[in-house]
Design brief:
alpha+beta, Beta-Lactamase, Alpha-Beta Plaits, 3 domains, 5-stranded antiparallel sheet
């Protein structure tokens, strides 16, 4: 009977380890195997962090346990294993045993039972095997994670390099960079700052808030020759963005509890290099596109050209006493598309929707890309009731459109759908400023998004 239990345990242990996909899986499967011997109340694995020299919860490495009573107790047991090289310690209903590799103690397992632990339990006969297995599996899993991180790093660098293939406006590019870096360096707060040319001070571009004013003081230390600046006892890294031999901005990574590792610094320095190239390219594009009229991604008028056409169209409507309407649209939850499938798919969505809408417009209608996922349409010789019909037609066409994304190799996803919210306004010849026309449409669009999305709202 005992040999059967030991066999079942060994089989369950090996099988569960083979099936473990991540750290939580590993712990859950390990727990299942151990339940053949113990009534488990709690099972935790702690690993020594090689950079901070702190024991960390294997499944929650971002948590700071440095000054907790629990961590001090675990650390004491860990130190005992370092000194005595024993295979286990029992404290009433709690069992501790080490995780080792090449005679080096790397971590500790804590098993808390609902009952007092009996040292004569058959489990202790195979404990050396268990230690060898859990040690090997944690090491293998960490190696797999490092490979994934490396792959994700190279993907992040490639994505940052690709931004300027379709985008050149800094207000759009910099937040996208922030999102990409934040998804890669997930254990640290990431900030993107840009230097205000006139005031010579730094402005936060991404995310929306930064509560630590000390960062602004550190940014003042940046010069055109600055390299990486490490502050807060190694917990903050400032990576200056130098473009055309001038301090242009900075990427800041900050962790309130742990130091930024040497490897993370290396990753961020390479990301910074690519970010500088991308910003330099975008800056050049802006200078060239100052005289261009079309948006590179959609083929619509760009924002600069829209301003020109707006003045021409409102002037003509006023002079000829003809109706004129404006439709402003925004793709619903577009950020979620980028976050879920990547910005390449986001660009595909923009191109497809722009093409779908264009088919529904007349030749005389003026289509423009106003911002990231915002489009504006000027409809000359069109009354408000007619514009509402057009807006509804656009909304329905987009809603039923299936966007093929097979070429982007997204697992189990071949096509997606999106919706748009729309605001409609009519030109009033008494308005002195032509911008009022699209500002009214923008206000109606805001209301459409606030009241449910995928709908048309008319400016009152």
């Amino acid at each position: 009977m005992e040999s059967e239990i030991l066999y079942n345990f060994s089989y369950t242990l090996v099988k569960s380890f083979e099936e473990a996909k991540d750290r939580n899986d590993l712990l859950e499967n390990f727990s299942k195997a151990l339940r053949l011997f113990f009534t488990i109340d709690e099972l935790k694995i702690y690993m020594m962090d090689e950079y901070s020299f702190l024991l960390k919860d294997f499944t929650k490495p971002w948590e700071n346990l440095a000054h907790s009573e629990e961590n001090l107790k675990i650390k004491k047991q860990f130190d005992n294993f370092l000194i005595q090289k024993s295979t286990y310690e029992i404290d009433e209903n709690t069992l501790y045993f080490p995780i080792c590799q090449k005679n080096k103690t790397l971590g500790i397992v804590k098993l808390k039972s609902c009952e007092k632990i009996n040292p004569k339990n058959n489990f202790f006969e195979i404990l050396p095997l268990v230690i060898a297995q859990i040690s090997m599996l944690t090491a293998t899993l960490k190696n797999k994670e490092m490979i994934k991180i490396s792959s994700k790093f190279h993907q992040t660098v490639r994505n940052i390099a690709k931004i300027t293939e379709t985008q050149y406006e800094l207000d759009y590019i910099l937040p996208i960079m922030g999102e990409m870096i934040d998804q890669f360096i997930s254990e640290h707060l990431i900030y993107i700052f840009i230097k205000n040319k006139n005031k010579k001070e730094y402005k936060l571009i991404w995310p929306k808030n930064c509560s630590d004013n000390k960062i602004y003081e550190y940014l003042e230390e940046i010069t055109p020759k600055s390299q990486t600046i490490i502050k807060q006892d190694g917990k903050m890294g400032i990576f200056p963005l130098i473009v055309d031999s001038k301090a242009y901005g900075a990427i800041v990574a900050y962790n309130h509890f742990d130091k930024i590792t040497k490897k993370e610094i290396e990753y961020l320095e390479e990301i910074k290099q690519q970010a500088q190239i991308t910003l330099s390219r975008a800056k050049s594009y802006v200078e060239v596109l100052e005289y261009a009229t079309l948006d590179a991604l959609t083929g619509y008028n760009n924002r600069h050209q829209f301003e020109k056409r707006l003045k021409e169209t409102t002037a003509a409507a006023k002079r000829q006493n003809q109706p004129l309407c404006c439709i402003m649209s925004d793709i619903d939850f577009f950020k979620k598309v980028n976050d879920t499938y990547g910005h390449a798919v986001g660009d595909c969505v923009l191109k497809t929707i722009a093409k779908t809408i264009k088919k529904e417009l007349r030749e005389e209608d003026i289509a423009s890309r106003y911002g990231g996922e915002e489009f504006i349409f000027l409809l000359p010789h069109t009354k408000l009731d007619e514009a509402i019909i057009v807006a509804e037609r656009l909304r329905k066409q987009v809603e039923k459109k299936k966007i093929n994304i097979e070429e982007y190799n997204i697992k189990d996803v071949k096509e997606i759908s999106v919706t748009i919210s729309i605001g409609v306004s009519e030109y009033n010849k008494n308005d002195k400023d032509p911008h009022i026309l699209y500002q009214k449409a923008d206000e109606a669009l805001y209301k459409a998004k606030e009241t449910g999305r995928n709908k048309v709202v008319i400016y009152d």
